[in-house]
Amino acid sequence: MLEDLTTAASSATGWPAAYPKGYAVVDVETTGLARHDRIISAAVYRLDARGEVEDHWYTLVNPEREPGPVWIHGLTNDVLEGAPLFTDIAEEFSTRLDGRVLVAHNAVFDWQMIAREYARAEREAPVRQRLCTIALSKELGLPLPNHKLETLAAHFGVVQQRAHHALDDARVLAEAFRPSLKAAATGGVRLPLHECRPLTEWSDLATPRIGQQAGASGYGSYRPTSWRPARKRPACPYPNPGRYEESKPLKQGMRIAFSGDTSIERDLLEDRATEAGLHVATSISRLTSLLVTNDPDSGTSKVVKARQYGTPVVDEAAFGQLLRDVEPATES
Known about the structure:
Layout: H1 2-11, E1 22-30, E2 39-48, E3 53-60, H2 70-73, H3 77-81, H4 86-97, E4 101-104, H5 107-120, E5 129-132, H6 133-140, H7 149-155, H8 166-187, E6 193-195, E7 255-259, H9 266-275, E8 279-281, E9 290-293, H10 301-309, E10 313-314, H11 316-322
Parallel strand pairs: 1-4, 4-5, 7-8, 7-9, 9-10
Antiparallel strand pairs: 1-2, 2-3, 5-6
């Protein structure tokens, strides 16, 4: 059905006038997921208004700190030592992004990392809109069991060659985005575009949220808060397989709890966990598989109970990496 739509879109002379005039399909690898983490490699595939590839670009970036989860991205200190700083590649990166919609898988994350790097460099990213391919696949009603990049790629027959390598991830995403865009155009689907509001100031001591300007003191006006409106989530369809074990993958059905402030919006983290087939728990019990917190030494009730029950604890960055490869539930 979708292939028929794609073929029809390719042969059609019309195209939605409201659609963007060009796209920059982006992937960045980073030292982690927190506000202070840095980009260590970036890739951009430029596509025209109808999704045809114009060119691509890739660069390593020296993060001026430890590279983070090397076992995931493979970029060691030795590899990154001679790489350019972000300030050195900012102009070229801007050329690739200028006037285009930024397209990424979980686009809010890539945009946040890019905006922060530009703010550190006392520049502004030339991006005004972003499009998340997860949101687009939902708009199209694609029959996907989950929203991982590899699942979207497999749906369109795209073969991954080097997972977690920015250039290959961007290629895979571009190849999957092209038929999605054509199907959306054929069906008259409104693209899920979101505004990008760059940071205009930056301080490594107090980091404002994306879209917020710093206060008069030069520090961000954002202050962490634990208050959030309640959200009702669908029940997890998988049985709880037990506790998370270090060096092993997460498994669908595991009960995940969060405590404290996170650099990525909590609702987004919980949505990603739910989409991966995990059970988002609001409290800690003996059945909890894993607690995610950036402050394991805090005295919050969840951290205290996790210690009492022996519940495994990881930080947000580690959890983000674990989310990339969640093991399917065991068939009964």
